[in-house]
Amino acid sequence: MIKGYLKNKYLRYLNIKKTLKEMDALNERLIKEKEIRQEFFANASHELKTPITSIRGYAELLESDMIKDEATKKDMISRIKKEADHMNMLIADILEVSKLETKEIRPEVMKVDIGLLVGETIETFKPRADEAQVSIYDYSKPGTFVYADYSHMDEIISNLVSNAIRYNRKNGKVWIYAANEGGFLELRVRDTGIGIPSSECSRIFERFYRVDKGRSRSSGGTGLGLSIVKHILSYYKGTIDVRSKLGSGSEFTVRIPERYEA
Ligand code: ADP
């Protein structure tokens, strides 16, 4: 009788100990998540301050009447516009990150025709590619598909293609390949661009990490694109890999299970 009572008590003690350990782990996770969020917002406000400071500086100069030359005035106005566009892009990416962080949001899964999406993406980016004198070639297999949220796939392809143009060189090339292979969607975006130092290849997926901040900023980058891609891929148990040679180009490979499993 006493033995049974002690055994029950001991089991209860073990249960409480286990619950306390789980609570500790949860608490630790929450603290870590809070730290990550705080760091993100600190970085985001720092990034937003840069264009605001420039816009303010140009506006003050124009207001002061110190600039007499019309061409310089025009140049300043176009710089203000560029900074405002940059802010817009930053805000859009920051909102995208916080949307992805809201765990309640469930992807609207449907059969997405990746061949068509690649074609549309190329159309969208054609003016930018022409301006940068970069040619895009599509080797995607017709009928390539994946079950996923259309906007998520659009985000992934657009980010990779826009980077392949942005970090390319004059008369550069971009090759896109998409196919279904072994139950996966495989998407490759290769460019003849500036490449990435091997020591930085894993870091480029971190939020706001940029190899060359100046080049990214001046060409409209926010430093968030690849972190958004990686975050989206985690929904689908997908992966992204990069192979790059400094000065020769980069190849990004995305693999996503064809059929989405929550
Ligand atoms: P960004 O808006 O700065 O392009 P991303 O998150 O998309 O931000 O990429 C992070 C960094 O990775 C970029 O700033 C750039 O340094 C590097 N990078 C990404 N794609 C390429 C590429 N195709 N070629 C060379 N560097 C790249």
List keywords for this structure.
binds adenosine-5'-diphosphate, alpha+beta, 6 helices, 56% helix, 262 residues, two-stranded antiparallel sheet, Helix Hairpins
Protein model, in words:
There is one protein chain. The protein is an alpha+beta fold. The chain folds into 2 domains: 5-101, Signal transduction histidine kinase, dimerisation/phosphotransfer (DHp) domain (Helix Hairpins, Orthogonal Bundle); 109-257, Histidine kinase-like ATPase, C-terminal domain (Heat Shock Protein 90). 56% of the residues lie in helices and 19% in strands. The chain is built from 6 helices and 7 strands; from the N terminus they run ααβαββαββααββ. The protein has a 5-stranded mixed beta sheet, covered by helices on one side. Strands 1-3 form a two-stranded antiparallel ribbon. A hairpin with a 2-residue loop joins β4 and β5 (184-191). α4 packs antiparallel against α6 (225-235). The longest helix is centred in the first third of the chain and has 62 residues, at 2-63. The chain is globular, with a radius of gyration of 24 Å. The relative contact order is 0.10. The mean pLDDT is 93. Bound molecules: adenosine-5'-diphosphate (ADP). The site of adenosine-5'-diphosphate (ADP) has 23 residues, from α4 and α6.
Low-confidence stretches: none
Beta strands, count = 7
Reported for the largest beta sheet, the result is: 5 strands, mixed
CATH topology of the largest domain: Heat Shock Protein 90
In this entry the ligands are: adenosine-5'-diphosphate
Overall 3D geometry? globular
Mean pLDDT: 93
Rg computed from alpha carbons, rounded to a whole number of angstroms: 24 Å
Give the class from helix and strand content and strand pairing: alpha+beta
Question: Secondary-structure element sequence?
Answer: HHEHEEHEEHHEE
> Strand portion, in percent?
15-25%
CATH-defined superfamily of the largest domain: Histidine kinase-like ATPase, C-terminal domain
- What's the architecture of the largest domain in CATH terms? 2-Layer Sandwich
Work out the helix count: 6
In order across it, which strands form the biggest sheet? 2-4-5-7-6
Count of the separate structural domains: 2
The CATH class of the largest domain turns out to be Alpha Beta
Q: Percentage of helical residues?
A: 55-70%
* Span of the ends, CA to CA: 49 Å
